[in-house]
Design a protein that fits this description.
single chain, about 350 residues, alpha/beta, Rossmann fold, 9-stranded mixed β-sheet, 3-stranded mixed β-sheet, about 40% helix, about 20% strand, binds uridine-5'-diphosphate-glucose
Length: about 350
């Protein structure tokens, strides 16, 4: 991470799963100050005690409230904007709340960054923003549009505003893997929505890597995704069960929940068409044209792309592959140790 030499950094939503991992990584450098803007004073207090590091300054506030954003932004050089409403079902029931936090809140953060002369803002988005069908994804898609519009208007004069999109973070709070682990621990059947549903699988560290990559590589308005493998939910359930020594688990089929898709897309085919392949990452440059389309034409031709980049067509892991991946995750290693299973035995 090269942030260290470059002055104070703000992480919005800094007490969440991503935010706190990012903060810990930044603290491992010689960074001078990290500010956290978040709503939950109890989470801040817990984190303050855990970190016990005077370089971290906590701001209680809300991205919806532009004054609290301005106070937190004043004097920082870089922003990682992770604050969001991200639960699919709750946003389905309260979509207006998703608009206030994910769309208006992001606009507040970027505007404050522009006014305060901040150098870069990395905005975190999700695969659910691609061809969105649920309120969470729609609000994140709008956040992306707001970020790109700011980048287009300000060009090289404003902060470098960029976007990262990632898929499911394995073992994140409230996600399916901890649910399966708890069901196995208590001897309950595993609840599977649709056995054929697929999801990209990414670790928390890989999501932080992606954001760091955007931070170091972005030009205004760029969008980055990290390539990732995927599995079906059924194989994920079987892999978690096998790790805990259950070879033929009882599975209860729940059916698709509110706003869920059969598969997720990290890039639409239109984005894939103009994406640059950076090895582990794709970069999609901003469409910086104005509305005077006749002023623009492309020289040379790119190969026509006829597919999206989805959890159905990316590298597919089978049960053995998912098990191997899960074994690399520290929370799974801890769960196995607590259950008295060695990683070798579980594999
Ligand atoms: O009891 C359950 C719960 C979930 N699932 C399935 O497991 C997969 C993953 O579900 P979950 O871990 O709840 O993640 P998603 O609903 O895909 O959404 C998560 O991943 C997004 C990124 O794609 C984040 O933005 C969201 O906050 C986060 O909830 C999905 O196919 C679900 O249908 C089950 O089979 N059984």
């Amino acid at each position: 991470m090269t942030t260290s030499a470059q002055g104070p950094v703000l992480v919005t939503g800094g007490t969440g799963s991503f935010g706190s991992t990012m903060v810990r990584r930044l603290l491992a450098t010689d960074i001078e100050e990290i500010r956290i803007l978040s709503r939950d004073e109890a989470k801040q207090d817990k984190m303050r005690r855990e970190l016990a590091d005077g370089r971290v300054k906590f701001h209680v506030g809300d991205v919806r409230d532009s004054r609290s954003v301005e106070d937190a932004v004043n004097g920082v050089r870089h922003i990682f904007h992770a604050a969001a409403l991200k639960q699919v079902p709750s946003c389905e029931f309260f979509p207006q709340q998703a608009v206030l936090t994910n769309v208006n809140g992001s606009d507040n953060v970027i505007r404050a960054a522009e006014r305060a002369g901040v150098e870069s803002v990395v905005c975190l988005s999700t695969d659910k923003a691609v061809y969105p069908i649920n309120a969470m994804g729609i609000s994140k898609a709008m956040m992306e549009k707001v970020a790109q519009a700011h980048a287009r208007h300000r060009g090289d004069d404003g902060p470098i505003v960029s976007i990262t999109r990632y898929g499911n973070v394995m073992y994140s709070r409230g996600s399916v893997i901890p649910v399966f682990v708890e069901q196995l621990r208590t001897g309950k059947p595993l609840t599977v929505t649709d056995p054929t549903m697929t999801r990209f699988l990414m670790s928390l560290d890989e999501s932080v890597d992606l954001v760091e990559y955007a931070f170091t590589e972005a030009k205004p308005g760029d969008l980055f995704v990290r390539k990732a493998p995927a599995s079906t939910v059924k194989d994920l359930a079987l892999a978690v069960a096998a790790l805990f020594g259950v070879e033929d688990p009882e599975i209860r089929i729940l059916g698709t929940r509110h706003g869920e898709k059969l598969y997720e897309s990290l890039l639409s085919r239109e984005e894939l068409q103009k994406a640059d392949d950076h090895g582990d990452y794709f970069r999609v440059p901003l469409d910086a044209r104005s509305l005077e389309y006749e002023l623009f034409f492309e020289e040379g031709e790119r190969e026509l792309v006829d597919h999206d980049y989805t959890s159905h067509n990316t590298e597919r892991l089978d049960v053995a592959g998912v098990k191997e991946l899960l074994l690399t995750l520290p929370p799974i290693q801890r769960e196995l140790a607590a259950a008295g299973r060695s990683p070798e035995g579980a594999a």
